[in-house]
């Protein structure tokens, strides 16, 4: 088990990290701690979980922005930008993420809604600032995604897992923009835009994790790539089910035939990729051949 953990750390390249990555990791950790802290506040203070003024906002946004920032920071290990470029990209991303979560949390502590709140000139300014900060996050995510298609120092299976996850993250941010345009999270009668938004956002964690587990097995790189493609197809199927459900104006629990089929097929493919990835973990490749050469 200890050797397996060492192989995983080596394959994931968690260390060493550049100075701009250390800064971003610290900021990401602070965001996660903010989410955990507000979860504790919710347990003590209580109140509704849903609604425009609830502890759900600082909890969910703290955890989500924190995990996303840490993930993008880790991905930069494989993109390997110049120091100045790394500081600009991750520095802007980290500061914008901290600012966004701070403003959301501040509004909850003030007892007012954080989103779509223009009741006072101050609330309007806060919401406008949030929009500006989210725009920066989106632009930096776009930068990382584009760079990943030009040069990425990773095995093909991991490279395409990262690229697919980043593209889906951009789709998630596009849905977030639509929420602003719609003036809320509802599309049509009962469609919940936050469902496809959330599903697409976290593919960038799920798919690379699948590729990393595969990198510890004796499978050939071609086979690993096929398994990643299988998992990606399953994840896209799940996303498609939420998209059909939402843009059909139906609530998350108001399941239709098409939605159910897409969800079952997608979940089946994604689940099927897991045991394939886990197979062979007991006998990882030797260090000299465990990590295929970079994919560019």
Please give a structural write-up:
The chain is mostly helical. It folds into two domains: 1-153, no CATH class; 164-284, no CATH class. The chain has helices spanning 2-12, 19-45, 56-79, 83-110, 121-150, 156-182, 194-201, 203-214, 221-247, 257-278, and strands at residues 186-187, 191-192. It has a two-stranded antiparallel ribbon with strand order 1-2. Strand 1 and strand 2 form a beta hairpin. The radius of gyration is 20 Å and the shape is globular.
**How much of the polypeptide forms β-strand, as a percent range?**
under 5%
Bin the helical content: over 70%
Mean pLDDT: 87
Q: Give me the secondary-structure category.
A: mainly alpha
The unreliable regions are: 284-296
The helix/strand order is HHHHHHEEHHHH
| Computed Rg | 20 Å
List keywords for this structure.
mainly alpha; 2 domains; 296 residues; 2 strands
List the helices and strands and how they pair.
Elements (H helix, E strand, L loop, with lengths): L1 H11 L6 H27 L10 H24 L3 H28 L10 H30 L5 H27 L3 E2 L3 E2 L1 H8 L1 H12 L6 H27 L9 H22 L18
Antiparallel strand pairs: 1-2
Short description:
The protein is mostly helical.
